[in-house]
Amino acid sequence: MKIFLNGKLVEKEDARVSVFDHGFLYGDGAFEGIRAYDGVVFRLAEHIDRLYETCHTMLIHLDMDKQGMTEAVVKTIRANGLRNAYIRLVVTRGDGDLGLDPRKCKGSPNVIIIADKITLYPDELYRQGLEIVTVPTVRNHPEAINPQLKSLNYLNNILAKIEANNAGVPEAIMLDGSGYVAECTGDNIFMVKKGELKTPLQGRLRGITRDAVMELADSKCGLKVSETLITRHELFNAEEVFLTGTAAELIPVVKIDGRMIGTGKPGPVTGKLLKLFQALTRKDGVKF
Ligand code: PXG
Predict the structure, then answer these.
(1) Tally of CA atoms within 13 A in the half-sphere of 231 that contains its CB
(2) Prediction pTM value
C-alpha cells in the first residue's frame, strides 16, 4: 500500500510521523473521510472545501492549494490501483514540542492521504434497519468546539460511541446542549413524516451525504425538506428515520430507545433515496 506523506508516495511501513506531531499529542489537526465509486471521487471538491474551512478556522496554513490537494488525492488512489476506495485525508498542525502552543509547530503541517478498501455495515443491517439509542454524552457546544470543524479531536464522538457499544447498538444519537437531536457519532440523522423530510438545524456537522440527500429529496422525490429543531419525541413518532454518512450512505433506523419507528421495517422513502444517492455517487465528483 502506498501512502501520500508530505508530497511523496511512500510504503505503508515508511509512512510515519514524529511523536512530537501535534495531531498525535493534542488532536490538533483536521481530516476528511472521502469515497470513490467506480472511478469517481464523490463530491471531492466539497470535501476539500470543508477541509480548508476547518484549517482556516484552526489557523493551520497549508502550503498546498486546493488544486494540488485534489491532484494528491487522485494520485494516491491511482497509485494503489483502486477504482472503489475509502480515502482518509489528514492534516496535522505539524511537529512541535511538548507545549500545546501551536506556535511551537514551526514547520509545515503534516499532510497524509490513505486510500484503502472500505469496510461497511453488513448488508443485512440495510435490509433490517438499525436499532440505536440516545446517549448521555452531549454533542460539543458550538462555541466550545464547533461541530462544523472536522478536527482530529473526536473524543466527544468516541465517548458517545463507547456508550453505544455498552448498550450493544452500532450507533448513538447525541443531543445538543438544549436537548434537541444533533447527530450520531459519525453520521447525520433524518426523519420522514407526512411528506416532509427533516434533519437537525444545529449542533451537527454539515455532512456531504446529508447535503446530497436533501437535494435529491427536494428535486427527485417532491418532499418538503427542512432543517429544524427535532426532539426525541418527534423521532419516536416519525414514519421513517435514517442515518447518512460517507461510510454508511443511507441506513435505515427501526428502533430508538426501545420505541419502534414506523412499521419497524425500513421505509419506502429511505429505500428510494438510497437508490438515488447510489446513482449520484457514480456521476457527481472528480473522475480518475
Ligand atoms: N457527523 C459526524 C460527526 C461525522 O464525523 C458525518 C456526520 C457525516 O458526514 P459526511 O460528510 O461523511 O456525509 C460525519 C462523517 C470514520 C468516518 O472513519 C467518519 C466520518 C466519515 C467517514 C468515516 O469514522 N464522519
Answers:
(1) 3
(2) 0.97
